[in-house]
Design a protein that fits this description.
The protein is mostly beta strands. It contains no helices and 11 strands. The mean pLDDT is about 95.
Length: about 120
């Protein structure tokens, strides 16, 4: 069982910075990719950033402002958020793709419980 726990959310002013952390525990060696998603009230959950195989991917809305990183030794992923905007306000969720088996390929998504981020004056 893989468990994800996020931390680092809070209230910041526009233009400020915040660093989110996600710690994974359990069967961590089965994790292929990790990422961050966010969901604002009344809106669908959207992808923020992912990291896998040395590659990173960002939503256009956060590109250049957010940076995702991964520390395999600590089984954690981080999201450095700079130049925050009010529209960044949402609950941020850590996500991991856990490979169940290779043939046939099967994977499941594991989600953290979320950490709220509020960008406001």
């Amino acid at each position: 069982q893989v468990q994800l726990v996020e931390s680092g959310g809070g209230l910041v002013q526009p233009g400020g910075s915040l660093r989110l952390s996600c710690a994974a525990s359990g069967s961590i060696f089965s994790i292929r990719a990790m990422g961050w998603y966010r969901q604002a009230p009344g809106k669908q959950r959207e992808l923020v950033a992912t990291i896998s195989g040395g590659n990173t991917n960002y939503a256009d809305s956060v590109k250049g402002r957010f940076t995702i990183s991964r520390d395999n030794a600590k089984n954690a992923t981080y999201l450095q958020m700079d130049s925050l905007k009010p529209e960044d306000t949402a609950v941020y969720y850590c996500n991991a793709e856990r490979v169940v088996r290779m043939i046939p390929y099967k994977s499941v998504e594991v989600w953290g419980q979320g950490t709220p981020v509020t960008v406001s004056s």
